[in-house]
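pinned: reference chain
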Amino acid sequence: MSRARIAVTTSSRSGWRIFPLVAFNVWLAGGRALRWGAGRPADLDAVDGLIIGGGDDISPDLYDMQIVTSARLDPERDALERCLVEGALARGKPVLGICRGAQMINVALGGTLHLDAYGTYTASDRVWTILPKKGVEVCPGTRLAEIAGTDPMQVNALHSQAVDRLGRDLAVAARDRGGMIQAVERRSDPFALGVQWHPEHLFYARRQRALFAALVAAARARRDHTPQLAAVDRMATTGT
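pinned: its structure tokens
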């Protein structure tokens, strides 16, 4: 069976060091990653799935909010990724969002963000590290729970924004101890999952590798014209 082709969007600033990590996780899951970004070719019809990677903040212009002076923005990347999320879901292709990517899935589907997440959720543990030092509670009954289980997770955190109002067809899949949304998901095909942390840095953890395995399983199912969520459930149960 040929490997599923997974497009991965990256920041123009940090993509050179982040893409290899994401590509490694995709390879472990049975896929092959292609790096996309502003100014690079991006043909959704040539891939089986999409990962929206982490990095820059998302401009509040996309959801009618006021900008904050500390934001690090990339309008060209915003425009590209919004179109890619919309286009992928319209084509029935699965999407995984990492940190900024989770936020972009939400914004592309009409949701909004907290620009100062920790200013809003003052009880949330404020950490800034690639090490797994932040506690996350997975919501029971969610697709994320099927994929990674419901035991509390220790994850990393490199974000200042977070999901506020949910976009169309999205549900909360995880929160931190202060109530901040840490993951969102679709409950029907096509598969879409966004996590606020960076699982690519946690490749040594089985539950984090499972996020990439779920995307690849859904991408293969889409290519084979079979139900994606059923394939994800089968992967979560059998590991294949």
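why pinned: The chain has one domain: 4-238. Residues 206-223 form the longest helix (18 residues).
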